[in-house]
Amino acid sequence: MCQAGDDTTDGPDHDDGHARLPDATPAFSALLEDSAEDLYEHAPCGYLSTLMDGTIAKVNATLLDWLGYRRDELVGRRRFSDLLTVGGRIYHETHIAPSLSMHGRIGGLALELRAADGSRLPVLMTSVVKTGVDGSAQLVRTTVFDARDRRAYERELLRARDQADLERDRAQKLASTLQRTLVPPILPTVAGMEVDAYYHPASNDEVGGDFYDLFPLADDTWGFFLGDVSGKGAAAAVVTSLTRYTLRAAAVSNPDPVAVLHILNTVLNHEYQGIDPRFCTVVYGLLTREDDGCTVALASGGHPPAALLRADGTAEFLHIPGGQLVGALPDAHFAGIEVRLRAGDALLLYSDGLTEARTGGRVRHSEEELLDFLDTVAPTTATALVEAVKGLLTSFGDGVDDDTALLALSIPSAGTTRR
Amino acid sequence: MGRVDVRSRNNVVVTGRDSGPVVLLAHGFGCDQNLWRLVAPVLAEQFRVVLFDHVGAGESDLSAWSPQRYATLDGYASDVLDICDELDLRDVVLVGHSVSAMIAVLAANRAPSRFAKLVLLTPSPCYLDDGDYRGGFSRSDIDELLDSLDSNYLGWAGAMAPVIMGNPERPELGAELTESFCRTDPAIARVFAKATFLSDNRDDLPGVSVPTLIIQCRQDAIAPPEVGRFVHEQIRGSELVTLDAIGHCPQLSAPASTAAAITAFASADAR
Asked: What does the record list as coiled-coil region(s) (chain A) (predicted)?
């Protein structure tokens, strides 16, 4: 470090840096007994003292040499800010001067000084306010280090940061674009029913593994599903895409939801054999409209149970025991059930981002707690249900660390229905 | 959406005489409410003094910052009005330093009934030269400033990153927070710098209907005296005081005369 002062007292063992040199010969002592004046003038850094109004009061030969000025051109004639670029001057007025006034010192400043020939010298500076015996500020002492090499390096770091920012923006845009292709842009209108959906991505940087869809099959018949593929990112998106189109194609020719899941299982098994097994959990449903509501045939492959919120204000899970992961085993077993929805009933499909959210630290929001919550929400409509669960997710804050998908269907309650 | 907690968002601090007239102090680009620390105690003897940090500065709630809201001075003016609403401040003497002088003009023009008086401390309605108007700077000067902010990014990162990430197990960070005075996240500083130095509020000046005092310094590299005179000419009935002070922050370089000028104007009978 460059320090002003008179370190001229030199004993034989006072200075680690020189201790291993031959004993203090007269010639060597003479070398060390530089005058304080010479140490100041020809220090390997620039020295500058300014009055409190910025007027340059003293400057060492090193800095004069770097900047190409004569002493009489600066001392008493120029202010420190005159040596700065205009941008640096604004920075000085808005940041450096107030900081010096507050703390009496400021360090690590990266600025450019303007040399006499108009060229610019990148420097790192530290300034300290010298106070008089009465505590009042008298002048500012500044050390100036040539920072050309360092600044080139820092500029490279800044360039790399800007590049990284750009790449991240690009990756986020790609992820969100890809994500949008995995869920319907808007849900179709189902006559006599209310439908709503929501997708909460856990990350802006990566495509999530959750998916859902709702689509017409024939008059009064609709297919829908909601699921979660293993993993995240581009590889998961490929599986999601395959899963979604397989389900839609299989639904066209198969009225039995269990059979639809078997087809998906076979396709995933064929596609992802061996070292890169890929599987998913999914609830698939076939909805048939009736005069007084609808019948829903559901099949599940290892997915959290759908929830049914009745018009009478009760809520229950539709457990489908025995459904295994889809795509994990060649001869997986799937099971199905059938429920009827009547006026005022609502059905909710969701992914495990909801039931595995951390609430208040490390405790995970359980299925039981979800059911308690849904109990307080029932009876409700698809839109209100999705809103309520969104609110619940928001209340978890950072606790939601997985993607969460919601799909809700409801039959309007009597009086508001039957158009 | 929950209601915005304005007090913590803007780190609002109230001192002084409860029954006194309200003086609301708005800091400028670069630092935070600490800039008023030599002036506020003097004003506090007579006034109810309300201090705050602009969002992005000092100890404001950084999570409330957004590049959209704070890309224009209107966003900051909205915050000033939010603070007046939240604290139910009336007949406010609004003192705006530097860029906050124009933020104060915008706030007063939007809700003139809120404010008894305006004090514009080293104001500039437009920093860029434009035809006959001399703001003092060119676009490339401002780009240089943005470079300065970026160049000091590394120093900032070292000092501030641990503070912002939150490190309850490191109590010494309290000290670093004080050190962080005038050190702002460069991404935030860049947006504020652009809003500050690229805004043109010359057309807002004639709309000021509140009694206004302009305080400027004899010599100021950022807001030179002729710019102060321009503001004085544009605001009908305004008063102009030129302090025998140097620099852009007379509340630091000449705190006594700055406080005296504010006090005299704020306590005079409204005309």
From this structure: 150-181
Domain ranges of chain B: 6-126+200-267
**What 3-state class would DSSP assign to B176?**
helix
Question: A123 in contact with B at a CB cutoff of 8 Å?
Answer: no
Q: Which CATH architecture has domain A42-146?
A: 2-Layer Sandwich (3.30)
- B226 is written with which tokens? 């002729």
Specify the range with the lowest mean pLDDT, choosing from A48-52, A296-300, B39-43, B146-150. Answer: B146-150
Q: Check if the beta carbon of residue B58 is closer than 8 Å to that of residue B32.
A: yes
**A183-410 CATH choice from 3.40.190.10, 3.40.50.300, 3.60.40.10, 1.20.210.10:** 3.60.40.10
What pLDDT sits at residue A181? Answer: 81
pLDDT higher than 50, residue A145: yes
In sign, the C-alpha dihedral spanning B3, B6, B8, B10 is positive
Interface of A with B in 27-56 (CB under 8 A): 52-54
d(CA B140, CA B124): 18
Cβ–Cβ of B148/A154 closer than 8 Å? no
**Residue B246: which of A133, A95, A72, A81 has the closest Cα?**
A81
B138 is catalytic: no
Check whether domain B6-126+200-267 has CATH 3.40.50.1820, yes or no: yes
Beta bridge partners of B95: B25, B119
CA–CA gap between residue B40 and residue B86 (Å, rounded): 21
- In chain B (271 residues long), the average pLDDT of successive 10-residue segments reads 77 95 95 92 97 92 90 96 96 97 97 97 95 92 83 53 43 46 75 92 97 95 94 97 92 93 88 47
Domain boundaries, chain A: 42-146, 183-410
Q: At what angle do helices B153-165 and A148-182 cross, to 10 degrees?
A: 50
B52: which 2 tokens? 């705050």
